[in-house]
User: Fold this.
Amino acid sequence: MSNQVKHILSIESSMKSASFVLILLFFATFASAQEAPKPGKFLQGRIEQIAGSNQLSDIVLRKLNPKLDTRVPLLSGTEVSTYPAYFIGRWGGDLKVVWSVNAPEITNNLPQYRLGNIGSVVLHFDKVADRVKLLPTVIFFPVEEMPVSQTVINTTKIKAENIEAFKKQTLDTGILRGVPTLPLAKFDGEGLTGRAFTSRVIHDSMRVLKPGVVEQDVVLGEWKDGAFYNYREFVSRFTWYGKDKIYAQILIANYGMSKKAVSKTLMEGWAGSNWKLTAQSIAGRLDTTWEDVVRRDGIE
Assistant:
């Protein structure tokens, strides 16, 4: 695999060579999927709220402003501060994009949001102090190649050890080639034109929707050159099917400054306790070792 292939295309990542993020500035409505087993339809979690609304809920942001409505959200289950202990360990598998909708203004169909595309992931749950947490997670997709347009130049952010060389190579060749990734975490980096991108967590909550079904909701605020421009929301729902497998649903929603959604995408799939097979697959497409992937991406 060439050095270009080793450059990692990402939504939010930190790689040895380079990683870059294409920023979506508009969002749209959501669709429904007709495949893969899911928890019973009676469940009402954040995934269902996002699917049925095009607005970032003020309830999600209520901790930022005491004047907002502080009533309890109409959700199933109970709010908790930790995952159940039986999730502890690593789980590996493939997640398929089953719902994906962009606003009409979005013309670049990113691989991470393409309907039917499949990403591989290793989920690591571990005890931190007195809580069980999902540690930093990155979803890896098959190798992609895309032309570098003016939009890509204006909205791409990178984090790399040799960032100047990577920027020069990308602009000189006009091709962005690599493994698209979707990190479920915050990201700090630099744009192709030198712009500074940063993000921070502004909301993090968790609910047990019913025994064996846990959903975590994280909202990030994102800034470009010190100016706020975007909200990004990750909802991770895991259903326990015993010691050998879990079912994962990951929803990614992006919102503009008006808090209106401009992109919603849902990925689903099984993850098993034999996570090393998935780790080897990911490392193989990156032409490196899993230990190096862990170090470069900040996976724990």
Q: What stands out?
A: The CA atoms of residues 45 and 75 lie 5 Å apart. The two ends are 26 Å apart (CA to CA). The longest strand covers residues 196-210.
